[in-house]
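Note to self: keep these together.
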Amino acid sequence: MLGRAPGFAAQTNANKLLDGPFAAVRDDAGRRWIITAWDALDRVWQNPPVPCIHSDPRLADCPPGETREARGWLWFYEGTDIRGELGRLRREYLESPKVVRKPLEPIRDKLVVLTFDDSVASLHANVRPLLKKNGYGATFFITEGFTFATNKTDYMTWAQIADLHRDGFEVGNHTQTHMGVSADSLGRLRHEIEFINGRCAEHGIPRPVSFGYPGNAIHPGALPILRELGIRFARRGAQPEFAYETGRGIAYEPREDHPLLVPTTGDARPVWTLENLKQAVAPARDGHIAVLQFHGVPDRDHPWVNTPPERFAEYVGWLKANGYRCIAMRDLARYVDPDDVPAEPWGIIGRRRAASAKP
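Structure:
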């Protein structure tokens, strides 16, 4: 496009401006600008010599005879205040987005959401390359709790967390201190979430739209706070339907489960085998989605949720060999309208508990 636009040369570091999710390139005179961004509005492209859709690992290369779709934005600006124009675009398209409804995709069988909690260093070292190799998406729920600030043997640096984003994975919010959500802590929830939002902004990571309840603790009062902060999907555990100790869960039922109370279908434990993994993803059929919760691979600081690396590699290999599609929490928006919420958020939870209590 630049090569055919009068007055524009190939982009260079001298004529290109990157600002959040926007990339702007100016003409030789410095007054005319071409501005681009891609869906989701979560990063700009720094892939010499030109921006390239295929630099996104979430989009597979397109074989002959097939089609791949990516939605992009394109603006033209003439003037000298490019920073001001990018600020206007940010306010209009990010801070007060105009929602363009796209038809929801059908929920096919074998759809799995992968989530990883607690900023564990092994997620960068072991999980990241394995998921990239297999073309799988995932959400990494980030907190500065535990010994994050001082223990860089067991917890990631923010540079490593930014790597996850640049690799196409989702960075989700897990609160500043890994604070459990309860009646007593609701007053601090907004600050805890905004702290992680701010740290993400400092490192070029988009404002999180997915939330993981720390310790899987939930409270009705959290839902309006999460919505006000722009959270679209929030993952809970399998409680209260199942005891935490079992790691057993239930499949996510869109339109029954509230988008801010997405249940965990399987919460991986060190005693898990491949059979446990198979049981956890088996409900991913008939419009239901399996949501898996992992912690460190391995997790030295919290051994009760440890997953051995060789076991995790076995899980991923089996999922790939058996045709499972693994996505991030944010990708649920392709299949589920996050604004379509049940009138009684706790209704399905009560019905499940009542059903399980029957002899």
